[in-house]
Amino acid sequence: MAAVTNRALWKGFPVWRANSSAQTSRWTALAVLCAGQLMVVLDGTVVSVALPSIQHGLGFSSAGLAWVVNAYLVPFGGLLLLAGRLGDLIGRKRVFITGLGVFTAASLLCGLSQGPAMLLASRFLQGIGGAVTTAVTLGMVVGLFPEPKERARAIGVYSFVQSAGGSLGLLAGGALTQAIGWHWIFFVNIPIGVVAVLAAARVLMPERGVGLGKGTDAVGALLVTAALMLGVYTIVETAGHGWASAHTLGFGAAALALLLAFVVRQAKAAHPLLPLRVLRSRSASGAMGIQALMVAGMFSFQFLCVLYLQKVLGFDEMHTGLGIFPVAVAIGALSLTLAPKLIARFGPRAVLLPGLALIAAGLAALGRVPAGGSYVVDVLPALLPLGTGFGLAMPALATLAMSAATPEDSGIASGMFNTMQQIGAAFGLAVLSTLANARTDALLSHGASAPSALTGGYQLAFRIGAGLVAVSLLLAAALLRSPAPAQRRAAVEEMPLAEHTAQPAGTGQRKS
């Protein structure tokens, strides 16, 4: 049975005993993992709200200001895969704590920055710490909760942090920037990071990893890191150079060549950094590709809806955060409660499809917002299906992406899942913002007012975002499969009671 096989794969690895004390410890460990992950996710959007204040305080040029975001995105997107594999090799706990420490120290440097150069260097270091932390988190969650129902609940909590953290960051960024200044969007990470590092050292189970000898492919590591960093850099720089420029085409071709060389290397290496067996599961690899499309579409909401609220409806930072907050509430209500139960009963595919449909519907509704619109009438009715859909889709995608992961590969699978998310986000933001700006310029040239021109650009981006999510829905319906509910229940019910929780290292074997 699928559930028995998956549980057997995790035998001999550091998981938890089935008593009340250990149960509490597992959920405490999940809380620590999610606290560290939330700190990283918040940073992705908390900075966006504070950009005008940062520009005024440090004297950034308009072009240079974009690199406050990009200096974080480039190392973050480029190092996820390598960091995930390092977690498999040397132990995910060690990698997680190292990443948190680097992120916390870099946050202090960001808050102390007195000029653009120092802030950009600190943001780059912050991106490294964020990548190292994020890459192994999902793999550790899967290892903590081998039983299907509990795993669904745990992944729901993780997905809430991943999905709603961006919306919470907008609210937190607006509040901190308006109340005490932009420096505090970084300083607030320090006490959280210190507590999370100490708690992780105490609560998380130690792991040896499978050993560097089983994956020390230095050439492969160099190739994939260079390819991903160069690819993310190329995408985020399209705003300044254009998609058809020599800069974009040249660097894009170089990134693709490096990625192809990495794949060839992995097929031939004795100890590959990315074992190609990880990609053989259609559900797992399909979920990662579908996630990239979904996130690319959702980024038309994440950033352009903020711009619509501020530039067209005249919201300030605080009210913008409050305006987006219903999305976080809807994501939490679904991913923390209903989605895990639905996934356990009906399977992740059955939950994913309506989730994607709701996201597409919400984006399509945003594609109709007028220049003289009302938040309650025009925006809020679109945000609710967006949050509901994302609250269903993210836990389902995470479950599918990790469905074929073994203990030896869970770090790399987790890193790949997050890598696809970052690539989708960078691509979606670059494409949709470019199209929105082009549409706005065209409308202005034809005599439209500034609010009407801006709204026309945002409408186009929202509609294209809805189209991207619709494509991901079609792919999910065609490519993904999940076992029938009766099969999943039988797989769990046929196991002895002791088998419902994976055993600690070295304690017995399941009888044939």
Determine Rg (CA atoms, Å).
22 Å
Mean pLDDT score: 80
What's the shape? globular
- Which H/E pattern describes the elements? HHHHHHHHHHHHHHHHHHH
If helices are DSSP runs of H or I spanning 4 or more residues, what is the number of helices? 19
Number of strands: 0
User: Helices and strands: which structural class?
Assistant: mainly alpha
Low-confidence parts: 1-20, 484-512
CA-to-CA gap between the ends? 13 Å
Helical amount: over 70%
Biggest sheet layout: none
Strand content: under 5%
Topology:
Layout: H1 2-9, H2 20-58, H3 62-90, H4 92-112, H5 116-144, H6 148-179, H7 184-187, H8 189-203, H9 218-236, H10 238-241, H11 246-268, H12 282-302, H13 304-312, H14 317-346, H15 348-366, H16 375-401, H17 410-445, H18 450-479, H19 485-493
Helix pairs in contact: 2-3, 2-5, 2-6, 2-8, 3-4, 3-5, 3-9, 3-17, 4-5, 4-8, 5-6, 5-17, 6-14, 6-16, 9-11, 9-17, 12-15, 12-16, 12-17, 12-18, 13-14, 13-18, 14-15, 14-16, 15-16, 15-18, 17-18
